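cron nightly-structures :: item 1 of 1
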Amino acid sequence: MHRDRIRILACVRQSTLAVAITAAVVLGACGKSQPPQKSEVAKSPEYFHADPATAGTLRGRITFHGAAPAKTAISMNAEAWCEAAHKKDPVFDQAVMVGKDAGLANAFVYIQAGLEGKTFEPVKETVTIDQHGCMFQPRAIGIRAGQTLIVTNSDEVSHNIHPLAKNNREWNQQQPPQSPALQRKFARAEVMIPVKCNVHAWMHAYIGVVEHPYFAVTGPDGSFAWINVPPGDYTIAVWHEKLGEQSRQVHLEKSGQAAVDFVYR
């Protein structure tokens, strides 16, 4: 009888101790402060949009004054298909192309400074460069950083596109006839990226990459125009593969218009 009472008391003490330990653990856990949970929702970048009520227009013209360089025919005898394709229609060097009223074509003009601190919304449209008639078409293009470049081959011979980028990743891609179009992007601004074909030495092109929508490649009349430009002070620059670079300062008033012309000689 005495032994049974001792045994019962021991069991009671063990049960009481277990309950006390469990309560202490629970209270301790409740008393600890939990670290704040980080939000898993990333903030969307704040894109700049020009105010239509105050935005203005920048326009201008690139001209070449003086005797235009003589046309030089391109020899394509290194590739039989290319030579045959132009047997009745010879191709001339396109480095300096002067149009009506001295307009300079294939000049890349852009806002070089004045948009600092502004992030522009990405564009979904693509830009295409084609290998057609054993030439890059067009010879000069402009594209936004992060925008998709489509590269096609319309010829019946293999070509090779090789952008010699310095501020972006350099790449080199063979493209046989009827092969699928290539898609590439340039992550950072770079003016200009020379492009060559490692198969056909006469094939050249140039790519201007900027981070905003205010750029243009001139046509035969040499003109350009940008609408919806926020008022401010800007540096406008123009680049040409043979004639070099120029830049000018311009001030655009609210809802105003300003003209910036460049002359090469």
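cron nightly-structures :: done
The CA atoms of residues 128 and 150 lie 5 Å apart.
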